[in-house]
């Protein structure tokens, strides 16, 4: 079975001074899939996304997008190439309305987007609706609560019309019902043909939406494979949750 | 260039670095702890210099004896300024505090020019011109004394910041204001104290400068800029960094003064811009109170 | 830039500009612009008034330019006087050394200012916050010193003298209209940019540069453009000023007070708004004039300027527009709001 590779990292490494936040990670993301990226706090998940998307300079290693070497490219070029992401710590444009925020993605995103502001503002209406923020279109971003700021992150990334989307903990801080609807959104986005990498601590969501999971621990690959299989891997349980949480983990498993 | 000129230059640079350390250290703690670029720093320095000048001229007070007076006076002034003015808007965006301290500088200089006139003045105690020579290198007593006093004051500041409760409170505030508050540190007072320390050190530097160089109301701006360059060179937030930065800067200043006197300041400024571009975190990196 | 949270792109289209209270204000503003347009033909338009208004309009133009980088893009540029100085010298030197007439000389001055902004902008616009601010101060100051000491080229402390405008009896009107056109051109330019992707990219950079970059905005290019356009405005103002005064002196055209005035005008009127800097320039002059008039200060002019800055920064860093337009009631409470938000 030959699957088309959309993104590949080879020995990707990021050091902060003496700290190896990401160490020699080889990851392959296949076109059309939803891949989960998990790992304990500080494992290097966000940093990994940062070095792929050009937010931080990579220390060593290579990144290929659809076969093209994009290592060291500036973030805006990577964005225009068709990679979008959300930020774990949300980054709204506070002085702009929801609509204007999202329109920025439609103005500058994939392919440089080539839409005028007017076209972009019209174009994003259905995206705002899709993430369930139609009523908030004219609101300024600084008036939104955190769950909506997370959705705004998603809408901004979607407006860029990406081929590959990184979701960095978009479900953190949401309640069970909100998580359900967020999972539904992720699936729908994927159905549109967008490849997704989800970073989540919410195991139920990981099991519920991903087809494959990649585990990082201390910046290194710990395991990868089918969700259930990986989550039952004792090494993963040990590293990821610590013994204290093993019990809770199994409760979560049952619920899922 | 002759060897003599070279050695003399080296000695001058080292002597100058003492005073410049003192100039920059107060600026550095205000920046590091309060996150304010204190553009009025040089103006406070100038007032310190004038206090020494007037005490000497009117009452014949020895300039070195006026050091504590000048520092104490400006300590009080600095405390008031921070407590009742800057504290009011300290958490506002950068432009606000930047303009605020700029305005203070403008006012102080303008008032000084108005009351004391713009003339160059000098403090000239009997021993002003005296010195000794090693080989052919001349070392004026006053400059040596200024060098030693600067280092002593810097050392005292280090001891204060490291070993006293108040000093620790100041550092804690700089590192994490919320944690400091929880520990019972009174933030407004601590801020005022930090700023007061900064102005007092500036005034002390002003006093020492007034003994070796002529003074005028606009002398301060150049020192504010030097303080900034030194902090950038040495990295924000460390006393050794400031000393290193001051040393480096003194060499640049002394030798550009020998080779291209009219462009002395321009060269210093260009060094600043280059360092900012190539080593934004300074040559010694970051530490201590930030 | 004080608190830019509520400074969205308000005027991204002209729809709605004529509606409601905003419509009334905008109409008044248009009438005022028209009034300024015919001002020189009015019977009471004395030389004094023409002179004063020319100064205000030049300040407005520079402040509009500063607003591109400082207000919309959010970079605290403190050295825009450098572009004014380059514009003045570029124009002056082209006229006397190359024998060009005013307009081509002005073009050279303005282009020189823009090129300089691009050259320094590429490295220093990577700096953030205080570092950027100080780098701009340093460059402007260094440039002033170089101009002052490079006597063979710039005339040094003696300055350079330009020919008079001919016919001299129309000089007042000519420079008034130059300044007027520049300021109005600046307003139109602001409006034009805000309706382009460029305008959105500026505001996006101001609000979150990383997010802007990730979303496909070439932030370097956008910032450099903002800086270069602000240099264009200041450079043109400098060139006009030089020919108007027929004299260029380094000490004068690189005065850091000019930068302060630009910023203060923008802050008074409201940074990151189209009309703010224009209106702010008028407010600034009125304030200064009133204060100097009522307080017998003489040489304490700078102290007054400083006091105004302090008062504005402490009480109304968001500008006076909300009070003037009646959007906010002027009350002790409203004045203390800023302190309540930002004190420790
Ligand atoms: N800009 C930075 N400078 C220095 N260290 C950093 C930086 N960013 C992250 N780190 C460190 O790198 C390590 C990995 O952090 P990262 O944010 O990538 O973890 P994460 O897996 O995303 O964690 P979380 O689940 O909490 O989001 C941590 O130890 C963090 O402190
Ligand atoms: Mg993370």
Summarize, please.
Chain A is an alpha/beta fold and 256 residues long.
Beta-strand percentage range of chain A:
15-25%
Low-confidence runs of at least 5 consecutive residues of chain A: none
The end-to-end span of chain B amounts to 42 Å
Query: Over the alpha carbons, how many angstroms does the gyration radius of chain A reach?
Result: 18 Å
Shape of chain A: globular
Low-confidence stretches of chain B: 284-290
**DSSP summary: helix tally of chain A:** 11
N-to-C span of chain A: 30 Å
Helix content of chain B: over 70%
Backbone structural class of chain A: alpha/beta
Question: Kindly state the mean pLDDT of chain B as a whole number?
Answer: 89
Count of individual domains of chain A: 2
Please give the oligomerization state of what you see. Answer: heterotrimer
Strand order of the largest sheet of chain A: 6-7-8-3-9-10
Order of helices and strands of chain A: EEEHEEHEHHHHEHEHEEHHH
Structural class of the secondary structure composition of chain B? mainly alpha
Mean pLDDT of chain A: 90
Q: Tell me the radius of gyration of chain B.
A: 19 Å
CATH architecture of the largest domain in chain A: 3-Layer(aba) Sandwich
Per CATH, the class of the largest domain in chain A reads Alpha Beta
Helix content of chain A: 25-40%
How does this model look, in words?
The complex is a heterotrimer of chains A (256), B (290) and C (344). Chain A folds into 2 domains: 1-77 and 163-256, P-loop containing nucleotide triphosphate hydrolases (Rossmann fold); 83-162, no CATH class. In chain A, strands 6-7-8-3-9-10 form a 6-stranded mixed sheet, with helices on both faces. A 4-stranded antiparallel sheet of chain A has the order 2-1-4-5, covered by helices on one side. Helix content of chain A is 39%, strand content 24%. Chain A has helices at 45-52, 75-81, 98-108, 117-123, 125-130, 146-159, 176-191, 203-209, 227-231, 234-241, 246-255; strands at residues 5-16, 19-30, 34-38, 60-65, 68-69, 83-85, 164-168, 195-199, 212-217, 220-225. Chain A has 256 residues and is of the alpha/beta class. Chain A starts with a strand and ends with a helix. Chain B has a two-stranded antiparallel sheet with strand order 1-2. By secondary structure, chain B is mostly helical. Chain B has 11 helices and 2 strands, in the order ααααββααααααα. Chain B starts with a helix and ends in a 12-residue tail after the last helix. Chain B has one domain (3-218). In chain B, 54% of the residues are buried. With 344 residues, chain C is mainly alpha-helical. Chain C has one domain (2-342). Chain C has 16 helices and 2 strands. Chain C has helices at residues 20-38, 47-72, 81-97, 102-124, 129-149, 151-154, 171-194, 197-207, 209-214, 219-245, 250-253, 256-269, 276-294, 301-315, 321-324, 332-342; strands at 160-161, 247-248. Chains in contact: A-C, B-C. The interface between B and C is large, with 44 and 48 residues. Adenosine-5'-triphosphate binds at residues 16, 19, 21, 39, 41-47, 88 of chain A.
């Amino acid at each position: 079975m030959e699957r088309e590779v959309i993104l590949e990292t080879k020995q990707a490494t990021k050091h902060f001074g003496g700290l190896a936040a990401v160490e020699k990670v080889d990851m392959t993301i296949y076109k059309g899939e939803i891949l989960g990226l998990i790992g304990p706090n500080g494992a290097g998940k966000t940093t990994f996304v940062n070095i792929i998307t050009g937010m931080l300079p990579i220390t060593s290693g290579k990144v290929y997008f659809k076969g093209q070497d994009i290592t060291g490219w500036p973030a805006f070029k990577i964005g225009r190439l068709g990679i979008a992401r959300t930020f774990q710590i949300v980054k709204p444009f506070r002085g702009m309305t929801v609509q204007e925020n999202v329109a920025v993605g439609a103005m500058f995103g994939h392919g440089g987007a080539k839409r005028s502001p007017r076209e972009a503002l019209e174009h994003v209406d259905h995206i705002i609706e899709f993430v369930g923020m139609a009523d908030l279109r004219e609101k300024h971003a600084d008036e939104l609560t955190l769950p909506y700021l997370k959705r705004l992150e998603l809408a901004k990334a979607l407006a860029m019309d990406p081929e590959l989307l990184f979701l960095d903990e978009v479900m953190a801080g949401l309640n069970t019902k909100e998580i359900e609807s967020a999972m539904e959104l992720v699936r729908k986005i994927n159905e549109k043909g967008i490849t997704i990498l989800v970073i989540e601590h919410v195991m139920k969501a990981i099991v519920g939406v991903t087809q494959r999971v990649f585990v990082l621990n201390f910046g290194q690959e710990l395991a990868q494979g089918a969700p259930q299989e990986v989550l039952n891997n004792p090494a993963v349980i040990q590293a990821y949750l610590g013994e204290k949480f093993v019990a809770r983990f199994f409760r979560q498993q049952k619920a899922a | 260039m002759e060897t003599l000129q070279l050695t003399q230059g080296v000695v001058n640079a080292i002597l100058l670095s003492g005073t410049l350390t003192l100039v920059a250290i107060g600026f550095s703690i205000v920046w590091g702890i309060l996150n304010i670029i204190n553009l009025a720093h040089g103006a406070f320095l100038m007032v310190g210099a004038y206090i020494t000048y007037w005490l000497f001229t009117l009452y014949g007070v020895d300039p070195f004896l006026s050091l504590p007076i000048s520092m104490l006076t400006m300590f009080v002034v600095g405390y008031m300024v921070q407590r009742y003015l800057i504290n009011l808007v300290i958490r506002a965006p950068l432009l606000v505090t930047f303009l605020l301290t700029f305005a203070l500088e403008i006012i102080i200089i303008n008032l000084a020019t108005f009351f004391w006139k713009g003339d160059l003045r000098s403090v000239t105690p009997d021993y002003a011109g005296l010195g000794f020579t090693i080989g052919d290198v001349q070392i004026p007593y006053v400059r040596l004394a200024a060098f030693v006093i600067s280092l002593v004051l810097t050392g005292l500041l280090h001891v204060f910041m490291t070993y006293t409760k108040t000093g620790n409170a100041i550092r804690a505030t700089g590192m994490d204001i919320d944690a400091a508050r929880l520990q019972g540190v009174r933030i407004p007072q601590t801020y005022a104290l930090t700023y007061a320390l900064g102005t007092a050190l500036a005034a002390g530097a002003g006093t020492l400068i007034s003994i070796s160089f002529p003074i005028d109301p606009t002398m301060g701006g150049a020192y504010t800029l030097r303080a900034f360059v030194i902090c950038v060179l040495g990295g924000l937030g460390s006393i050794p960094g400031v000393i290193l930065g001051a040393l480096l800067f003194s060499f640049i200043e002394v030798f550009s003064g020998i080779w291209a006197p009219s462009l002395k300041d321009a060269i210093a400024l260009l060094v600043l811009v280059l360092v900012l571009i190539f080593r934004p975190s300074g040559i010694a990196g970051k530490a201590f109170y930030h | 830039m004080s608190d830019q949270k509520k400074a969205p792109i308000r005027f991204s289209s002209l729809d709605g500009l004529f509606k409601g209270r905003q419509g009334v204000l905008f109409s008044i503003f248009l009438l005022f612009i028209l009034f300024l347009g015919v001002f020189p033909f009015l019977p009471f338009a004395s030389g004094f008034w023409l002179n004063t208004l020319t100064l205000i309009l030049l300040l407005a133009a520079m402040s509009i330019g500063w607003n591109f980088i400082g207000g919309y893009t959010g970079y605290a540029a403190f050295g825009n006087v450098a572009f004014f100085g380059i514009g003045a010298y570029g124009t002056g030197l082209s006229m006397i050394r190359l024998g060009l007439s005013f307009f081509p000389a002005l073009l050279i001055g303005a282009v020189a200012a823009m090129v300089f902004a691009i050259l320094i902008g590429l490295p220093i616009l990577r700096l953030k916050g205080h570092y950027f601010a100080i780098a701009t101060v340093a460059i402007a100051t260094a440039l002033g010193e170089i101009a002052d000491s490079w006597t063979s080229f710039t005339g040094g402390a003696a300055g350079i003298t330009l020919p008079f405008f001919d016919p001299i009896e129309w000089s007042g009107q000519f420079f008034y209209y130059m300044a007027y056109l520049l300021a109005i051109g600046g307003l139109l330019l602001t409006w034009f940019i805000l309706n382009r992707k460029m305008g959105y990219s500026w505001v996006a950079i101001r609000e979150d540069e990383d997010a802007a970059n990730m979303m496909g905005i070439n932030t370097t290019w956008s910032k450099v453009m903002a800086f270069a356009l602000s240099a264009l405005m200041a450079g043109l103002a400098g060139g006009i000023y030089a020919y108007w005064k027929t004299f260029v002196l380094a000490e004068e055209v690189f005065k850091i007070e000019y930068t302060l005035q630009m910023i203060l005008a923008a802050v008074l009127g409201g940074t990151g708004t189209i009309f703010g800097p224009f209106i702010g320039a008028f407010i600034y002059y009125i304030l200064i004039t009133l204060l100097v008039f009522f307080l017998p200060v003489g040489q304490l002019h700078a102290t007054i300027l400083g006091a105004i800055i302090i008062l504005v920064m402490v009480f109304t860093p968001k500008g006076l527009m909300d009070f003037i337009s009646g959007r906010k009631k002027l009350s002790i409470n409203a004045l203390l709001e800023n302190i309540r938000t930002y004190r420790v």
